[in-house]
Design goal:
Elements (H helix, E strand, L loop, with lengths): L2 H31 L2 E7 L3 E2 L14 E8 L4 E10 L6 E10 L12 E2 L8 E3 L3 E4 L3 E5 L4 E8 L9 E3 L6 E5 L12 E3 L2 E2 L1 E8 L4 E7 L1 H4 L11 H11 L6 E7 L13 H10 L4 E7 L2 H5 L4 H16 L4 E5 L12 H15 L6 E3 L1 H5 E2 L2 E5 L12 H10 L12
Parallel strand pairs: 16-17, 16-18, 18-19, 19-20
Antiparallel strand pairs: 1-15, 2-11, 3-10, 3-12, 4-8, 4-9, 4-15, 5-6, 5-7, 5-10, 11-14, 12-13, 21-22
Amino acid sequence: MDMNNKQLLIRTQLFIAIAVLFILFFAENVYSQSGKWVGSWSCAPYAAGATNVPPPPYLENNTLRQVVRVSIGGDSLRVKFSNKTSSTPVTIKAVNIARSMGGSLVDASTLTPLKFNGNRLVTMDAFSSVTSDPVAFDLMPSMHVAITIYYGQAASNADMTSHVASRTDSYILEGDHAASADFEGSVVTAHWFHINTIDVLAPDTAASVGIIGNSITDGYGLSGGLQNRWPDIFSQALLDDPRTNKIGVLNLGIGATHLTGPSPTAGINRFQDDILSQSGIRWAIIFYGTNDIGAGVPASTIIEAYEKLIADAHARNIKVYGATITPFKGHSYYSEANEKVRSTVNEWIRTPGNFDGCIDFDKAIRDPDDPERMIAQYSNDGLHPNVEGYALLGKSVPLDLFADTENK
């Protein structure tokens, strides 16, 4: 090849390279401007505790598959992982997301690798979190998806980050099975570890509602991975209504926690991270206070906490709805003094001008002949609803509270 031809070839290759870079830059900017990130699923991360660590063979150098139900769908997503409670790093060697086919099985054709700054491997430092790069994925509304993590370093100890009350089976296999369709022979554990949030790229009109509460929101008494907590029922109702079918629902309930107090799991201390920091958040629901009343916290302290959370949310232009505290006569929490506190708090929640709106769970589930008690057919133990009771609560949320389009 003579010198002129070589120069022509070099110029042609340079032109092609510049054209490709321009196309990629243009496509990236179109992509980034075609919508916004909105939360479709989340769980509140907290320390597992000594009795809720993964069983043998544990997580280190092994693979964990976890199944979740999203709310709204989209064609691109990103996943956040958390190590916020642990003093030791966690290394993810590979992670895939796929459509769940039930149990530990996934649709192999949908297995999609997640990357972090272009790499499959990522290390979460102590007390930190990481979010995957955006990836194309056909996420349908209310889809069950499996997140499969192949770990490197991953200590199974009391401060490891988890959501203990997943009400859903997760699956552990020895070695690298991140790309396996089935997990035959896996060890089952009914907890989530390290997964935190799934965001979807959604239209500008989409938004999410974050729910903060305790065991009734977390689904106490449910099992089998049926995703039938009251927020799941509420989510499906939103999806079924054309006015609200672009609204994601994020369940940030943690069982056995208080609204008030010094604990990092108290609602007042985690509201910023668990609710206000979510992508696309437009509404918050506060359904908290039962455990505080059971512990003797006065109504004034509970109401002061509500006022602080409302102010924090309003500073971010987020509407806040209060859910009334459900009856607990027949449970050990009940006393005449505690019932008076519950009544005082519920009266404040119902009073216009305090919250931006009221979700009256008390009215929905109380026995009309004995209003201090749940309707028997909806009660589990006098404090928590049963399966039918959770469905009743989820269906009782007024969708009109979320159909207002003035801010969309």
